[in-house]
Amino acid sequence: MCGVAGVLTGSRAEPAGLDELKRMIAMLGHRGPDGYGFYRDDRIGLAHARLSIVGLAGGFQPIHNEDRTLWISFNGEIFNHVELRRELEARGHRFYTQTDTEVIVHAFEEYGPATWAKLNGQFAICLWDTTRRELWLVRDRLGILPLFYARRGEHLVFASEAKALFGGGRVAPAFDPARLAQVFTHWSTAPHGSVFEGVESVPAATAIRVDSTLALHVDRYWQPDFATDPSLAKLSLDEAADRLEEKLLDAIRLRLRADVPVGVYISGGLDSSVIAALARKLDTTHMHSFGVRFTDAGFDETPQQRLVAGHVGTEHHDILCSPQDIQTALPDVIRHGETPLVRTAPAPLFLLSRLVRESGIRVVLSGEGADEWLAGYDIFKEDKVRRFWARQPGSKARPKLLGRVHPFAAVNGQKDSPLWQAFFKRGMMDTDETFYAHRTRWRNTAWSQRLLSADVQATADDAAFEAHVAAHLPDGWSRWSPLARSQWAEIATFMTPYLLSAQGDRVAMANSIEVRYPFLDPAVDDLCAALPDRVKMLGLRDKLALRRLAARHLPAEIFQRPKRPYRAPMTTALFGEGAPDYVRDLLSPDALARYGLADITAVSALAEKAHRQNGNMAGEREEMALVGTLTLQMLAHYIHDELPQRIRDQRSALDRAEIHVLEDRALKDRGADARTATPQPTAA
Question: Exactly one of 2, 126, 321, 528 is catalytic; which is it?
Answer without folding.
Answer: 2
